[in-house]
Amino acid sequence: LFRSYRDSGAGDQASQVANTVVKKLTALSEDVLFPLDLDAGLRPEGKNGPLVRSLDAFSQYYQGWALGWEAQALLRAARLVGDRTLQDDFLTMAATYRYPASFSDDQAREIRRIKARMEAERLPQGVDPSRHLKLGRGSLSDVEWAIQLLQLRHGHQYPDIRTPSTLDAMDRCVEHNLLEPGDAQYLREAWLLASRVRAALALYGASSTDVLPIHRQGLEGAARLMGYSRGGASELEDTYLKVTRHSRAVFERVFYDKSV
What pTM was estimated for this model as a whole? Predict the structure, then answer.
């Protein structure tokens, strides 16, 4: 969640407003019924960085200090609230870094290294990688990183793939022959299925919405909410594992192929 202001002399006032907004949103997010999980630490320089920056300060940061993954994170940047002209100027500034005129093999290798590290370090200990809905093999993360690498490589050349929507970007990559239609279908199916399972687990009240349940009761609850008939737990499980297996194969071909 980026917070910015235009006038460099308005830093104190902007900080006060930002702190108030973050405190109120944090209080709301503690309610289990609140639909968003907010992390104010996800910003340039993390928790050590200022809560709010001027537009010029953002530009200086991305030009001089930002890491490759931070440019990648800008691919999801979109308007939320506030002055529309400032939002437009921020997105124009961000386009320079998230859709670079050239994207080298070294930059691609760095993105791949970060993805591999994330798989090794962020996946909870003891969780079967094939069952994690966000970070597992062929799941949400695989689909999003594959599409984002295509955006980083080709967004400067093809302006219509410049969208924070994974599925929209996927469709436009197909239109420009950056992604085979069949591969896109596998990725789309996995992304949608993982998203539906997470939503069903949230509605069911599962202790975790990030892992396909092993226990029949939780799996059956999610299956029923997704429209499966009674006793559909095994069908859901088999479908998810099959769909994500196909998705992972596409991911490995698209994400790790240097010719992409």
Answer: 0.84
Cα separation, 86 vs 7, in Å, equals 11
| Token pair 């990183």: residue | 145
Give the integer Cα–Cα distance in Å for 203 and 209. 9
Contact 210, 133 (CB under 8 A): yes
Asked if 149 and 108 touch (Cβ cutoff 8 Å), the reply is yes
Residue 258 pLDDT level (bands cut at 50, 70, 90) = very low
Alpha-carbon gap, residue 59 to 146, rounded angstroms: 26
pLDDT in tens, 60-70: 888 887 778 88
Domains of the chain: 4-98 (3.30.460.10), 105-256 (1.20.120.330)
Cβ count near 114 (within 10 Å): 15
Our measurement of the distance from residue 238's CA atom to the centroid of its chain's CA atoms, rounded to an integer in Å, reads 25
